Amino acid sequence: MLTSVSYPVRNICRSKLPLAKTGMTLLQDGDLSKGTAFTKEERDHLNLRGLLPYKVFTKDEQAARIRRQFELMPTPLLKYIFLANEREKNSQSFWRFLFTHPPEETMPVLYTPTVGEACQKWATHRQSYRGIYITPEDSGKIKDILHNYPRQDIRCIVVTDAGRILGLGDLGASGLGIPVGKLMLYTLIGQVNPDQTLPVQLDMGTDRKEILADPLYHGWRHPRIRGPAHTKFVEEFVAAVKEVFGETCLVQFEDFEMETAFTLLDHFRWRCNCFNDDIEGTAAVAAATLASATHMEGVPDLKNQKIIFIGAGSAATGIANLIVDMAVSRGGITKEQAYKNIIMFDHKGMVHAGRKDLYDFNKPYMHNMEVYGSVLEGVKK
């Protein structure tokens, strides 16, 4: 079970606490260092005297310093890089700042939309060591890699292969910012203990020639692995996670290619403690909203609703699937009828039985019916 944290996140460094690290080694460990918040007694006890300026700052004063510097950064990306560096230097003051600063100002920097640009430029800006990278060349050694991570009480993993990062497509090995950002939000909003979380990048190669041509690219220079070989590798990863961190460790699949995302979810949903945020997380919120709306006076029940989706990808299909299940569970409609109440449009037009360019997960919504030329036409009819 995930444990929660409260503000402040933790108070690791106390003067009576024996630490293996002292002096400069301690200051360079962002998870143990308090920086200028070490007391005079602690500075003597931990061989820090002279390595820090005279004044002992409170944690609130440290957070105020971060706030001032954060506000001076001229662009969202520079704010993102600044916060990443602060977390590496002193995670306690980093979290103190986040818990005391308006989330509407920090969340767009920690995650969307800024994280997309950060991932695109991952090869050039300073990269965090929070998380692990695993490539197909590591097959047979994944358990060793998981053991290399400094924390072993891991309860929640967010893993991506960067096959479809936000709306940016295949980013190769530059997707780790997504799991890092998502897990920071879990701590900031859900009080999930950050010491029990692990961001993972499965580096399955990339088909983007401009990425492979970059001399600073840090990933596995190989065409992207897909299909059965991809699933087999993820099987090895999941098995290693269950052995190292336990059967109950939560695995969240994040930003995989659409067809791969559905394949993995269907393959693993009954084999491990997992979910796909793009398919299931988005669906839970959207379906709950629709369910609430249908309880209002004068609003038709789900079985009598006609729903049009602008988009037919993993998120839209996940929402549609849950709406179908919800309508059937309420009674009065079959699954086949519920499917027919949903019409989807993608960038090529309406999803229908005559199209040959769709995915398997689109099939329930490929109806034999009048083809509408536009969303507006569908709404009018």
Automatic annotation (TrEMBL):
Cofactor binding description: Divalent metal cations. Prefers magnesium or manganese.
A GO BP entry: malate metabolic process
Cofactors named for this entry: Mg(2+); Mn(2+)
Residue ranges constituting the Malic enzyme N-terminal domain according to the UniProt record: 87-269
Signal sequence bounds: none
Active site: Y111, K182
Binding site for a divalent metal cation: E254, D255, D278
Binding site for (S)-malate: R164
GO molecular function: malate dehydrogenase (decarboxylating) (NADP+) activity; metal ion binding; NAD binding
Annotated SMART domains: malic (SM01274), Malic_M (SM00919)
Residue span(s) of domain Malic enzyme NAD-binding: 279-379
Keyword annotations: Metal-binding
Superkingdom, taxonomy of origin: Eukaryota
Keyword Metal-binding part of the UniProt annotation: yes
Family: Belongs to the malic enzymes family.
PANTHER family documented for this protein: MALIC ENZYME-RELATED
Record's protein name: Malate dehydrogenase:SUBUNIT=A, putative
